Amino acid sequence: MLSLGAGAADGRILAMFYAGDNPTAVAIAQFITVFGNAPVSVLFATLGAAILLVMKHPRRGFALLAVVFGGRLLVSAQKYSILRLRPEIEAHLVPVSNPSFPSGHAANSMILWVALALILFGDTRFRNVALAIGLSIAVLVGLSRLVLGVHWPSDVVGGWAFGALWVLIALPVAERLFVPKR
């Protein structure tokens, strides 16, 4: 992505989203970004697995945990392999300490919320609504990272793309491994 010229547009797009001078936008973005934080991902993946256990689907719970935690590990590996610097903007509006690409919040929220939607509601009439909600959360989390000035737009797009691809590949594999055929 970066080799295709995304870096040139990154600064201009980031400047459109960055809200350093808008306390209301910053407060909203700080709230939204929490839904992509590591502790929140762990909490909701664990809650999802617990719900599946109570619903007598423990193997689906294991599949959910495998997809979420496997994706988190791969995102970290990418960050420390690529080592892209974060934007040098006036001020990052939340603390950050790791490399920029891909956005872990964008990737992890895509993985968590889409996997939860598909595993918990995949066989129900609520699947499309749950999937739309999961995708919306992931999009909002990614955009919040731009508003807070902690990622380049290409970091966020890369995170979303990896997260979606990971769910498309890993979820069917995990379900084959953990969920018995009927």
Lay out the secondary structure.
Elements: H1 6-17, H2 23-33, H3 38-54, H4 58-82, H5 104-121, H6 127-147, H7 153-178
Helix pairs in contact: 2-6, 3-4, 3-5, 4-5, 4-7, 5-6, 5-7, 6-7
Rounded mean pLDDT score:
87
Strand-residue proportion: under 5%
Ranges where pLDDT stays below 50 over 5 or more residues in a row are 1-5
The number of E-state strands comes to 0
* Radius of gyration, in angstroms, nearest whole number: 17 Å
Total number of helical segments? 7
Keywords: Membrane, Transmembrane, Transmembrane helix
InterPro entries: PAP2/HPO, PAP2/HPO_sf
Protein name: Phosphatase PAP2 family protein
Pfam families: PAP2 (PF01569)
How would you summarize what this structure contains?
With 182 residues, the protein is mainly α.
Keywords, please?
182 residues, mainly alpha, 7 helices, 71% helix, elongated, disordered N terminus
Give structural notes.
Residues 59-171 form the Phosphatidic acid phosphatase type 2/haloperoxidase domain. With 182 residues, the chain is mostly helical. The protein has one domain. It has helices at residues 6-17, 23-33, 38-54, 58-82, 104-121, 127-147, 153-178. The chain starts with 5 loop residues before the first helix and ends with a helix.
